[in-house]
Amino acid sequence: MARTTYVFSYTDAAATEASIKKILTEEKYELVFEKGEHVWKCGNGVFTSIKYIKYEFIDQSTLHITGWVRSDLGGEFSLDGYLVGYHKKKVREVINRIKAVIR
């Protein structure tokens, strides 16, 4: 799996989770259970890559947000590099929105 994970600190888990869910919903991501894990998915893969974001509260102050893109070109792609770059950029933009509201 090629994924990019960002590590953030937080102080209020409930407020942070509510803000994350609000942003993901506004950005048209849907919570799905896929390949044994709950992830937020945007797109259906028809004529475009599918964008994914997953967040996990690791402990009382650490939050991991993971983003990746899945494409017919070769599976999962981390958010680095140029291949399917437009979609990677869109995932990074959503993660930056989330970063701005973490409490």
Helix-strand string: EHEEEEEH
Helix content: 25-40%
Strand content: 35-45%
Q: Helix tally?
A: 2
- From the alpha-carbon coordinates, what is the Rg to the nearest angstrom? 13 Å
Overall pLDDT score: 94
Q: What's the topology here?
A:
Elements: E1 4-9, H1 13-26, E2 30-34, E3 37-42, E4 50-57, E5 62-71, E6 75-77, H2 85-101
Antiparallel strand pairs: 1-5, 2-3, 3-4, 4-5, 5-6
Helix pairs in contact: 1-2
Could you characterize what this model shows?
The protein is of the alpha+beta class and 103 residues long. It contains two helices and six strands; from the N terminus they run E-H-E-E-E-E-E-H. It has helices at 13-26, 85-101; strands spanning 4-9, 30-34, 37-42, 50-57, 62-71, 75-77. Strands 1, 2, 3, 4, 5 and 6 form a six-stranded antiparallel sheet that branches. Strand 2 and strand 3 form a beta hairpin. Helix 1 (13-26) runs antiparallel to helix 2 (85-101). The radius of gyration is 13 Å and the shape is globular. It starts with a strand and ends with a helix.
